[in-house]
Amino acid sequence: MNVAILGYGVVGSGVAKVLKENAKTITEKTGYGFKVTRILDKREFPLSEYRAIITNNFDDIANDSSIDVVVETMGGVEPAYSFVKTCLEKGKHVVSSNKELVAVKGAELLKIAESKNVNFFFEASVGGGIPVIRPISRCLAGNNIRSVAGILNGTTNYILTKMITEGVSFEEALSEAQKLGYAEKDPTADVDGYDAMRKICILASLCFGVHLYPDNVYCEGIRRITLADVAYAEKFGSVIKLVARAEKLDNGEVFAMVSPCLVKKTNMLAGVKDVYNACLVNGDMTGDVLMYGKGAGSEATASAVVGDIIDCADNSKERKFFGWQDTKQDILSDYSLKETSLYVRCLVMNKPEACRRLKAIFGNVVFLWRKNQPENEIAFITPVMKEKQLRKVLSTTGVNVITTIRVLA
Ligand code: HSE
Question: Is residue 183 lining ligand 1, measured as CB closer than 6 Å?
């Protein structure tokens, strides 16, 4: 089969590499042979072995009827969306690693693919090299999925791990993640949680069957996490992780959120370190299922793309069904009505007095301490309440709140 690649960056070049280096293995395992015949990129690669097939003209791919599968690894919504749409309309299978595109346009592109009887696959859009999309949409299809939660961004997990285990600064850890090819072109998408938000929207859409658009999902990143918070979390037997989660509520609404959380060390997600990702799905028949592996990086992500290319070959004459419907209906619940407890770090004038007051107001409060704790600083864990109510009560305590972090139940 002939394959074209749109975007010869970290993932696109990884796909060419995997198809070439593991060609023999792939053919032995699947019976198929794949050849990259065209690559689209606006940059020039004079030293690349692929220089003769690199073009900056999309029409060279769109109008080439010998191309069976188009791999989109450009990132961003445009021009990726227009290119993918054109390829599907021209009857080509498309495989994408682009979470932004899938999160925003997934339902629409699946519909176009359906009308043209071709496939639109996107295993690499979530969890890098970890198989998550196919297991959720096929292997777990016998379940009503109740919730999905995960560590879905390799860059932030790498940064937090470095902060927790080596005490390095946020900036230094980010720069290392960028060097290793984990971060997005603009790492704001990683550190402010947007990348994880897009991924949880894709997972929730697959798990619950209805497109969950990222626009209104509450999203908070890790920029304000400090080594002081890391130290207090440790005293609570927890680590700080950027957790993306979604849950189907009894009233049909979906709760979804991305935020840093204190995760107890006994929780399976706490042990997920460095660039690794994990996705924890809870089905009514299976209970918890954990999928774990490298969540970013050229080769791991390319491996997932190649899996999709093989699936296109398996289903070259037909379209595989995805139960993912578009909806204009707002199915997102009000996150502030969700019950949670909070870690709070604050400044106070009089510590004993403030502690007495917090106990009197909240009842059960767990105070935390750390080495070199400033005299005017307090950190504590609140009891569980609806978040809206909790924040309201907190505002009456008279403490000067520096930061709050949700505690994962
Ligand atoms: N920047 C992303 C991450 C790449 O760090 O997880 C994989 O989607």
Answer: yes
Q: Give the pLDDT of residue 328.
A: 65
Question: Is 199 a known active-site residue?
Answer: yes
Nearest to 182 by CA among 149, 150, 153: 153
My answer on whether omega of the bond before 79 falls inside 30° of 0, hence cis, is yes
- Mean predicted confidence (pLDDT) in 146-172: 95
Dist. CA 196–CA 201, nearest whole Å:
9
Ligand 1 center from residue 202 Cα (angstroms): 14
Please classify residue 226 by burial: count the beta carbons closer than 10 Å to its beta carbon, then call 0-12 exposed, 13-18 middle and 19+ buried: middle
Mutation probe of ligand 1 site: the residue of 100, 125, 190 with most atoms within 8 A of C-beta: 190
pLDDT digits (tens, 9 = 90+) for 343-393: 999 999 999 999 999 999 999 999 999 999 999 999 999 999 999 999 999
For residues 61 and 70, the answer to whether their CB atoms sit within 8 Å is yes
Q: How many angstroms separate the CA atoms of 12 and 6, rounded? A: 7
Q: At what angle do helices 10-21 and 23-30 cross, to 10 degrees?
A: 70
Ligand 1 lined by 195 (C-beta under 6 Å): yes
Q: Is the CB of 283 within 6 Å of ligand 1?
A: no
Distance 183 CA to ligand 1 centre (A): 6
Question: Measured from the CA of 182, which atom of ligand 1 is nearest?
Answer: 5
Q: CA 268 to CA 96: how far, in whole Å?
A: 29
Is residue 97 within 8 Å of 301, Cβ to Cβ?
yes
Check whether 16 has a pLDDT greater than 90: yes
CB count within 10 Å of CB 278 equals 23
The residue whose two tokens read 């070049």 is: 13
Q: Is the CB of 155 under 6 A from ligand 1?
A: yes
Instruction: Quote the DSSP letter at residue 362.
Output: H
Q: What's the gap in Å between 117 CA and the centre of ligand 1?
A: 31
Spell 164-192 as b/e; 16+ CB within 10 A means b: beeeeebeebbebbeebbbbbeebebbbb
pTM of the model: 0.96
Distances (CA, A) of 70 to 20, 24, 63, 92: 16, 21, 12, 7
**Measured distance CA(92)–CA(86) in Å, rounded:** 9
- Alpha carbon nearest to ligand 1 atom 4, residue: 296
